[in-house]
């Protein structure tokens, strides 16, 4: 199950910290799951189900395909992709903003407006979101692995013993003290 959780995290392009925050657990708990110290609990599977409703719970628990409930990679079915393509072409032909008002693809779960990829303008307007304008995050695959450092062992010198103590006085005399053996 830990491999499927890791696969879901990588598929969503999330870091361990972001993934743990989304499903409502600490990063230490997620790290312990990946290291094999603990097993995922029902609350973790429930958190995955609530945060990613498109993910098949049976896939998370048992590995039964498909990973997503509607057989597509990110929650858009083939019909939804065709509807989205139709909405884009209708928007490019019909309106200045390039969006088909009041329509949403049947497989899409969010209410985000569709972008115009038509020939109206080569450059995107400064107010419209760019398709690939997302913050660059360090990916899971590029996360540096913890490299075990070689332990340096310092060999102690043999313990030193006091052989004598001398005290010098200002009248040019001194005393010598020798410990008992």
Automatic annotation (TrEMBL):
Chain residue ranges for the region called Disordered: 86-112
Matching InterPro entries: Cro/C1-type_HTH (IPR001387), Lambda_DNA-bd_dom_sf (IPR010982)
Domain HTH cro/C1-type, chain residue ranges per copy: 5-43
Gene Ontology molecular function, alphabetical: DNA binding
CDD domains, alphabetized: HTH_XRE
Gene3D superfamilies per UniProt: lambda repressor-like DNA-binding domains
Superkingdom, taxonomy of origin: Bacteria
Pfam families registered for this protein in UniProt: HTH_3
Name the record gives this protein: Helix-turn-helix domain-containing protein
Organism, scientific name: Segatella copri
